[in-house]
């Protein structure tokens, strides 16, 4: 894949041999050989005289270059004098370019590189935090889904497939944590297939995005899929990750085959490859519509279309269902194939439906005249619906936010915004520029008026998301916030940071004050920084990271979720979610790093931050 070379474009056509350092002896001897091809100077007296001068010069230079102090470098700026002659300029080395790298070698060498010392140091801090989080997990919970860092034990809340191991694996690869790649990869190779064959109920969506997505990303980043961007030489061979992924996906397919409609059941019994609906019979719209990136890529690398065929039937079916300006209810029935209820929101149970519309289209090449164009069309209509029906401004300071319609478009508007909604700024920006920088997209006239509107909204929403952190006493966001509007206000529910200019705009209910180490805001900061190059997004990301370090780090190892972000010191919960290693720290690391590592025009991230390659034709 094409990557920028580590030196100026104007140097591309230079022969690097011209810039290699040559000794004085080689310079003069080469000159003599060249001259001899023009004229045999040794055959005349003048030639003999010149030859003596050359031999004398060579002798002097050999004495200089082989002197007793040659191994000790001169002080900076010091000039050497020999026999009264100033030789500084004469002996100055020619300029030397870095070695020319192939595009893929450049990608690998850039892994973690950063030309700015400040951001290189901050990126290293994130890398150290990941190591600290993993160390706590490995010490107290290895093989369990999640770490309870205060209790110093593990817990299985996601089906018992070692979710933290697989979720963290590609983050370790990207960061260059080879010892963690070795530990995690060895665990996958030794234990995961057996776990899959023995476990009972798992959730289709959670298992797909965390475990299947993590395995497929690890497969690609470790050199699978004929990829030359091998980010690690540690751990098992790529085929190990792929074989486990296929075994898992084969069992997950029962969620599709067991349903009477294209809408899959939500729960799968892995050991006998059966499936059933969730209690109440409904599936979440986001869940059934957010497995396509993973199943599409598995079909591409396995050569078996069955995975993609089943998953894409869901989106093709949803295309036919009635919507409200492109917006959909958060529940759908596998029995009838129809939406259930009228609750419309971009938070829980609704969020990644909209994310995958644009990302699946991008994954399949992002062409407007392809079989996947309907996904781009659905996304475009939905974002118009968001702007028309869900976007409001708070008072008194005018933060732009996205609310909810609990009773549909004809019901009352709710100024409630989950932290989960903070995925939207990044998705809007990605959908606008298709992974190119804003500057490049503008220069190539690739941005429509609609794209510019979405990009503007992305930046406005990112500000609201960051202010959800800024208004609290800890500097960490609550799980849910409400916004003060003309129609809605409550007193005494501020975030605790009275110096914030938006203290009166954001309302935080007692039940919503917890923080689960979520990634959505830093995800959007990462995408917006990559696409706009505005350094405020880096600064904001660093501020959030410092708050995580200050209030969520556990002395015995790992990080913990918090019970109340509006008080200092905050009450602590006892859970390190898998997505803290799989998403939050990964996005922060990439935010502070080099743009060539996982470039946004070459990869799409699934909703658990596992990067999968874009199909290029």
Automatic annotation (TrEMBL):
Pathway: Protein modification; protein glycosylation. Its EC number is 3.2.1.-. The keyword RNA-binding does not apply. It is a single-pass type II membrane protein. The chain crosses the membrane at residues 49-65. GO terms for biological process: carbohydrate metabolic process. It comes from the Eukaryota. It is an enzyme of class 3 (hydrolase). It is found in: Membrane. GO terms for cellular component: endoplasmic reticulum; endosome; membrane; trans-Golgi network. Keywords: Calcium, Disulfide bond, Glycosidase, Hydrolase, Membrane, Metal-binding, Transmembrane, Transmembrane helix. Residues 110-120 have a biased composition (Polar residues). Residues 93-120 are annotated as: Disordered. Pfam families: Glyco_hydro_47. One of its GO terms (molecular function) is mannosyl-oligosaccharide 1,2-alpha-mannosidase activity. InterPro entries: 6hp_glycosidase-like_sf, Glyco_hydro_47, Glycosyl_Hydrolase_47, Seven-hairpin_glycosidases. Ca(2+) binds at residue 607. Its cofactor is Ca(2+). The keyword Zinc-finger does not apply. Disulfide bonds join 422-465. The active site is at residues 206, 351, 479, 520. Belongs to the glycosyl hydrolase 47 family. This is alpha-1,2-Mannosidase. It comes from Brassica carinata.
